[in-house]
């Protein structure tokens, strides 16, 4: 090798093809044919060659003195790690070789060191789980089915009245709470309380339940003389009913300033209802889903949500856990980022996504989780959720899942399965969890650790080609999911059959109406279950709801034999005026002593006389 005057390096054939290097015994070894030889070097660039030439000339010059810049190493050439020119003279040890910066080098690591090396710490359960899921050993194997024990309930001694079933959910404590805060709120607004009581609140609630079955266009129509509905009109005067509806309240506004709870106006009632729902005995199959409470106003701000595929597209969003019979056992109000403000979550649970956190929170209240199975749709299901539920609670899960949450399962593509026809399926399993893709009208993805493929059953589907229903094969987890997933949909259907009229400017009033309807729905399902245990035919939901009225109507209308007996009907004068019981717009201070009704008695109106005469 030699350096040309222009700075270029030229290598002769001898230098290019031969090199000698002492081995461990001090003998020279020919390394011309060795590709991995340490002396093999790539051609130097022009700047590197100039640097090397300068260094050689400086070493041969006896008058050369290093400058301060050279001593400090502040040159543009010091940033390069130069390789020394290979020496052909034998020496006891080979010169140490410097490695060029930026050049890749491989490090040999033993298998034992690789196994002992700790893995990366997971700070985000979802993201880390997805990366690990791509390396999971998915196998073409089925999993063992979990045998869910059958549900058994103790039969009651006797069937209670519908009012008693209702009061097990809407308790006396809740009625007293409403009465207290209604008086307090009216005193804040008017300067004096409206002096309502628990008995009056019960009558008010019974009127709302009746209005849910007999729905009139306007509230005033129940008292109007042309459309008067005596069951409601005789229970409470119209003005008193509208006064209670105006000032009914559920919490103290002055104590809620700065609270992270955005549902503070209705939260106490929901908490008391939730405690009662948790006491209801449940089956071992549970489902988690969302519920929309209809509200189209704008006063609730961002609490109002929009879901396109719901019957009520605008409204408040709740997440509920229900048994397969349709009874709601737990519920959670959704309010955005502060949904879990009063719930303690572990670091592992905090790392989960929103859907997984909701399911985990609702499933913590299941009495016997190791004997239970929970079902959820693709909004909630993920591989991390199934592992977290089984690892922390011992709870098994079956659910439809989106393709990017399957933990890296390598299944056939939708196109490949669609070519095989309806009923085709593919599956893989790992760590006790099975991922299944099944073709019905389109491909459906499921994850499960409760049951798998066997036994393969069949379902009836309509075939356009055969113009009849045909049997389509399906894995065993498909019928299990279809059978037990519809609990919340059943409850939602019962609530919408007879809805309490709650149109109001106050945004929380629809939530109060949902509480009433949910208590009726849960109470009727419990009543129906008790009737089946005692082999008694249950009442339909409408008759059950109408039986809620526990009070006797107020005696606003006298009996005909008293009204027309022409004996003892004397007018009494009162300082406070009352509405005439005969004419629709009359107001009078005169009241019949025997009939106990106000009647007009003046020169222009003779309602007092007309009222007591048969026509």
Give a verbal description of the structure.
The protein is of the alpha+beta class. 33% of the residues lie in helices and 15% in strands. It has 21 helices and 17 strands. Helix 17 packs across helix 18 (509-533).
Label this structure with key terms.
33% helix, disordered N terminus, 17 strands, PGBD, 615 residues, nine-stranded mixed sheet, PiggyBac transposable element-derived protein domain-containing protein, alpha+beta, two-stranded antiparallel sheet
User: With helices defined by DSSP (H or I, 4 residues minimum), what is the helix count?
Assistant: 21
The quaternary organization reads as single chain
Structural class from helices and strands?
Answer: alpha+beta
Measured on Cα atoms, how large is the radius of gyration? 42 Å
Concise synopsis of the structure shown:
Helix content is 33%, strand content 15%. InterPro entries: PGBD.
Topology:
Layout: E1 2-3, E2 9-10, H1 13-17, E3 20-22, E4 28-30, H2 46-60, H3 68-72, H4 111-116, H5 125-133, H6 162-169, H7 172-190, H8 198-213, H9 230-233, H10 238-247, H11 267-278, E5 285-294, E6 305-306, E7 314-323, E8 328-333, H12 347-350, H13 354-363, E9 373-376, H14 383-393, E10 396-400, H15 414-420, E11 425-430, E12 433-439, E13 443-448, E14 457-463, E15 468-474, H16 477-484, H17 487-497, H18 509-533, H19 541-546, H20 560-563, E16 571-579, E17 587-592, H21 607-611
Parallel strand pairs: 5-9, 9-10
Antiparallel strand pairs: 1-2, 3-4, 5-7, 6-7, 7-8, 10-13, 11-12, 12-13, 14-15, 16-17
Helix pairs in contact: 6-18, 11-18, 13-14, 17-18
